[in-house]
Design goal:
The chain is built from 14 helices and 2 strands; from the N terminus they run ααααβαβααααααααα. It is mostly helical.
């Protein structure tokens, strides 16, 4: 029984690292967007389109990292389009986000059909566990470089929000547009740039899905991770560092079903596979009545008005 528990914990560790990476990038992108006072529910579309573009470019060029950059570029374009539309008068950013989600996934499904079968060049992992002498632990500690990029980015964002002029401008724009305008800040420009940058990060998250884990392109690849990341941001209280821990928690929840199956527990498999969605629902219910979340939420978000 002890060996089985260790096996499950190791499998969940590896799964948490792998599964958390897309959550991390989308959550950081949404954190940046919401810090500026805008909600982007369309990041699911950025994620799916980024996955398709990354796979297609990697297949056509043989360079996986070029695919990652192309995925970020596709997310940047969708984010910029979202940001531009939301600048128009009497436009609701939540409604635009839902429309952009459908637009992004529709583009991905339409242009991605020729790339469902071909095999593209995948991203390599860094073997960090070979020294352990435990094959299972060594496999769990095969970490993709994008995981470390996400952690570094979260630390940088946390520092920048508190210690840089542009970080102060983003936070001020998200908390009080009137104050930002009084200081001579272009609120529309700040939110446009933040939304575009958030879309770029979501596109990178999509590249991880198609080029590393699970490492293929198909129309059911995302499984709603872009939408779940919005709940993750609320759970993390718009803190980039807390987004790392929240993403790892979501990743571990997503790895629970396969981990139990690895030791022969198949009863209730579909229930355990639904753990991330159940966790999302629980977080949304708790956050709805959380005074701490209400205190930390940027004042200009649509959900506060």
């Amino acid at each position: 029984m002890d060996n089985a528990l260790v096996t499950v914990l190791i499998a969940m560790l590896g799964g948490a690292i792998r599964v958390s990476t897309p959550f991390m990038f989308v959550a950081l992108g949404e954190t940046l967007t919401e810090k500026s006072g805008r909600i982007n529910l369309g990041l699911e579309g950025n994620l799916v389109l980024g996955a398709m573009v990354a796979y297609a470019v990697s297949y056509l060029t043989g360079n996986a990292w070029l695919g990652v950059l192309a995925a970020g570029g596709s997310g940047l374009c969708l984010g910029a389009l979202h940001g531009y539309i939301c600048k128009l008068p009497r436009v609701n950013d939540i409604a635009v986000g839902i429309a952009m989600m459908s637009f992004g996934t529709g583009l991905a499904f339409f242009f991605g059909k020729p790339f469902i079968q071909p095999s593209a060049t995948r991203l390599d992992a860094i073997p960090l566990g070979d020294w352990t002498g435990n094959p299972a632990l060594a496999q769990a500690l095969e970490v993709n470089p994008l995981f470390f990029v996400g952690i570094a980015l979260a630390i940088f964002m946390f520092w920048a929000f508190k210690n840089t002029r542009w970080g102060l401008i983003v936070r001020m724009t998200g908390d009080s547009a009137a104050s930002a305008k009084a200081m001579g800040v272009s609120v529309d420009l700040v939110r446009f740039l933040a939304t575009a940058a958030g879309g770029f990060l979501a596109g990178i998250g999509g590249a991880f899905l198609s080029l590393y884990y699970p490492g293929s392109w198909n129309q059911g690849l995302s499984s709603g991770q872009g939408l779940m990341a919005v709940a993750l941001v609320i759970f993390a209280r718009w803190d980039p560092i807390k987004c790392i821990w929240a993403a790892l928690l979501f990743g571990a929840a997503g790895a629970l079903g396969p981990s139990l199956q690895s030791i022969g527990i198949s009863q209730g498999y579909y229930f355990f596979n639904a753990a991330p969605y159940i966790l999302t629902l629980i977080i949304m219910i708790i956050s709805a009545g959380s005074k701490a979340a209400a205190r930390d939420v940027p004042g200009e978000l649509s959900i506060t008005k």
